[in-house]
Amino acid sequence: MSVVYLAALVVSLLCVVSVDLRYRLFLGTDPGRALLVLVCGTGFFLLWDLAGIGLGIFFRADGPYATGILLAPELPLEEPVFLLFLCELTMVLVCGAERILARRRASPPRSTR
Questions:
Q1: What is the pLDDT of residue 113?
Q2: Which of 55, 69, 80, 90 has the smallest count of CB within 10 Å of its CB?
Q3: Residue 30: inside a domain
């Protein structure tokens, strides 16, 4: 049993959250609404995983870096943490891209001389 993968996910999640809060992208603008989106997104993907597991599509792969702790048959402890990380990262990228595009639209065009 190893916690390397779980620790890497938690550290990665904390890094993305720190960038998010530093630049006020997602959690930094409206924490209540952002947390609701994260819970709904993570919940949706967990249900998706459970449906895939129930249909025999998804299987847990044994690895030397995973904890080996299962929350349900074929659902490792690391999966909800990964899904939370995925949702947070996606929202930070979307909000960051929106901010960059808005600044580009607001700035005057550059001279090409």
A1: 64
A2: 55
A3: yes
Domain count, the chain: 1
Q: Name the pTM for this structure.
A: 0.90
Domain presence at residue 33:
yes
Question: In this structure, is residue 60 part of a structural domain?
Answer: yes
Q: Do 26 and 95 touch, CB atoms closer than 8 A?
A: yes
Which of the pair, 48 or 60, is modelled with greater confidence?
48
- 10, 90, 101, 112, 113 from 85: Cα distances, Å: 8, 8, 24, 42, 45
Whether 71 is covered by a domain: the verdict is yes
25-41 per-position pLDDT tens digit: 999 999 999 999 999 99
Task: List C-alpha distances in Å: 56 to 21, 44, 50, 60, 89.
Answer: 39, 18, 10, 11, 28
